[in-house]
């Protein structure tokens, strides 16, 4: 398993593999890596004729293999991309869906024993959260394919990417302000791009200031709250408590943590209510003032709860808030009791 730097080095040496498997939690960043490989393999003149794309959640894998084995047109290579390949996860789901995932993985495994030499097969799997690790299936493929774990951009790499985005948007930002921005933003490329667009629009042509950044950007802890609630939806109380402890260690106050959890449950309740009444993602994103990417993730998360369950959890939030304000008992214990109740 390699990282993007290793991949870049291999491609510069014209060392091509027959199959690339990308995995990570940032889909936009994965897509950029997929484009990087594709642009290194195909010439733009015949891109459309030698490029195929399949939805990994729905596609018949036999059709994917047939596409791989079809000869390229006026080119040495062709590229076949399978996106959101859920069959690479270890989770089962229903018996039918579990059987299909196993069958697709088996067909992929057999194909990679003797892949078409003229085809570059690119598959990517998006983790459900930042803490997910490469599955046993992905590790197994590491022997037959080039597996790339797409880690989120950090440090100087993140700063350079953000500077490029600010400059492309025609806005100036100083080194100190850039460092502050990168320390505050959740390093998910969809969110990074959205926050830069908001700041550029807010500044209206002038240089970005520290005050602009503090005024416009959400707190980074919101992503931790999303993951915490996601673990509660899975009844994985141990991982949810791990995130609670991380937030406390980072200095977040328990009343604020509870407030953010309550806000998340309220948003999920309104989203689920909206979906059940026929509202689209675009309408909900506008009404709730959410970025479309965040709204999409929250729609998926809302499906893990019933309306009754969300209403009960909101009531538990209110009860716990009263307990925190009216008693002298340990706040951390009260939060742990509250979280356990949400999964009962």
From TrEMBL:
Residues 20-150 form the DNA polymerase III delta N-terminal domain. It catalyses: DNA(n) + a 2'-deoxyribonucleoside 5'-triphosphate = DNA(n+1) + diphosphate. GO terms for biological process: DNA-templated DNA replication. One of its GO terms (molecular function) is DNA binding. Pfam families: DNA_pol3_delta, DNA_pol3_delta_C. Its EC number is 2.7.7.7. InterPro entries: DNA_pol3_clamp-load_cplx_C (IPR008921), DNA_pol3_delta-like_C (IPR048466), DNA_pol3_delta_N (IPR010372), DNA_polIII_delta (IPR005790), P-loop_NTPase (IPR027417). SUPFAM superfamilies: P-loop containing nucleoside triphosphate hydrolases, post-AAA+ oligomerization domain-like. It comes from the Bacteria. Belongs to the DNA polymerase HolA subunit family. This is DNA polymerase III subunit delta. The gene is holA.
């Amino acid at each position: 398993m390699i990282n993007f730097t290793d991949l870049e080095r291999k491609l510069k040496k014209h060392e091509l593999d027959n199959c690339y498997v990308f995995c990570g939690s940032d889909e936009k960043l994965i897509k950029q890596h997929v484009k990087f490989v594709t642009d290194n393999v195909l010439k733009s003149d015949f891109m459309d004729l030698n490029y195929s794309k399949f939805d990994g959640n729905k596609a018949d894998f036999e059709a994917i293999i047939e596409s791989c084995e079809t000869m390229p047109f006026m080119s040495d290579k062709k590229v076949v991309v399978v996106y959101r390949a859920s069959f690479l996860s270890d989770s089962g789901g229903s018996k039918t869906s579990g059987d299909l995932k196993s069958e697709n993985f088996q067909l992929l495994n057999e194909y990679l024993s003797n892949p078409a030499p003229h085809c570059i097969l690119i598959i990517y799997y998006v983790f459900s959260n930042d803490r997910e690790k490469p599955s046993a299936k992905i590790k197994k493929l590491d022997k037959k394919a080039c597996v790339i774990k797409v880690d989120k951009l950090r440090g100087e790499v993140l700063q350079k990417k953000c500077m490029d985005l600010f400059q492309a948007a025609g806005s100036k930002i100083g080194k100190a302000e850039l460092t502050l921005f990168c320390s505050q933003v959740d390093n998910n490329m969809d969110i990074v791009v959205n926050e830069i667009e908001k700041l550029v629009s807010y500044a209206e042509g002038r240089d970005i200031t520290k005050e602009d950044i503090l005024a416009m950007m959400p707190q980074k802890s919101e992503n931790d709250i999303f993951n915490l609630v996601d673990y509660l939806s899975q009844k994985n109380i141990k991982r949810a408590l791990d995130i609670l402890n991380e937030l406390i260690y980072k200095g977040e106050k328990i009343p604020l943590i509870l407030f953010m959890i309550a806000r998340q449950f309220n948003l999920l309740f309104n989203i689920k209510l909206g979906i059940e009444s026929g509202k689209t993602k675009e309408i909900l994103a506008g009404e709730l003032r959410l970025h479309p990417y965040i709204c999409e993730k929250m729609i998926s998360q809302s499906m893990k709860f019933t309306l009754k369950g969300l209403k009960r959890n909101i009531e538990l939030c209110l009860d716990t808030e009263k307990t925190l304000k009216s008693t002298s008992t340990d706040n951390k214990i009260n939060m742990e009791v509250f979280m356990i109740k949400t999964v009962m």
